What we know:
Blueprint: E1 4-8, E2 12-17, E3 24-31, E4 38-42, E5 45-48, E6 54-55, E7 62-65, E8 68-71, H1 74-82, E9 88-92, H2 105-114, E10 116-122, E11 124-128, E12 132-136, E13 139-144, E14 151-158, E15 166-172, H3 175-178, E16 187-189, H4 193-198, E17 211-214, E18 217-218, H5 229-242, E19 248-256, H6 260-271, E20 277-281
Parallel strand pairs: 4-9, 11-19, 14-19, 16-17
Antiparallel strand pairs: 1-10, 2-3, 3-9, 4-5, 6-7, 7-8, 11-20, 12-13, 13-19, 14-15, 17-18
Helix pairs in contact: 1-5, 5-6
Amino acid sequence: MYKNQNTLSEVVEFSGVGLHSGEKAKIKLIPAKVDNGIKFKINKNLIEASWKNAVVSQLCTKIKLKNIAISTIEHLMAAISGLGITNLVIQINTNEVPILDGSSKEFVDQIKTVGILKQVKFQKIIKIKKKVEYKDQDKYICISPSKNNNLMIDYTIDYKDNFIKKQNLKYIHNEKNFLNIYMSRTFCLHDDLQRIFALGLAKGGSLDNAIVVSENKILNQGGLRYSDEFVRHKILDCIGDLYLAGYQIWGNLITYQGGHELNLRLLREVLNNKKNYEILDQNI
């Protein structure tokens, strides 16, 4: 990953629909000074993209400050993390980031088109010092120290359907490897749609921004972008969620049937105890 802090070379804008709200959304990525971090701006309010502001939410990652919330930030946060961007103001006109095509593709492609500006200060890194784990029935996530000074994610999904089934992928977080997963799209089972709609979610969902699995096939024309697109997308979500730590993380993460809630709970378990980690400059 990059050693220095980075921002964008110029402003980038995106517009689309919110996956769950169905509302039209516009965002503007604005370059920021060193040590700014990643902050969302709605009206005149700034909300830091931090685990301290994150709340457990249905089927997405949400940050909230007082009575203002911004949802479905995970694909954008993954793009920012994967490209090594540390300082940014994300101006948004509504309470949900646009879903675009359901992956990080459009965010990454536009950012790479305008370019990334290297800044004259080192990034900081969160280095895991002790094993931390969290369990929820059959779901499991843990992170332990890395001997290789990187983030390794060993992710297993295990669906009881006829198509996704069980998939595992081991991933080391850097820009080159990120570009092998950034086009993986969000997905759901057709059988779950009525439950999701009943919760008032997925009002903006369509086959243009999500893979829908029905029995032993997908309903999307054009098929999958990767044979294991489902587990790749789960890793994409995980990368976005972990960047709420405020810095890149060095550690070995293993998860079985994980998701946004487990990712957030792990961050809280790690970062609420300073014995679990240390913060270092990337220049080591």
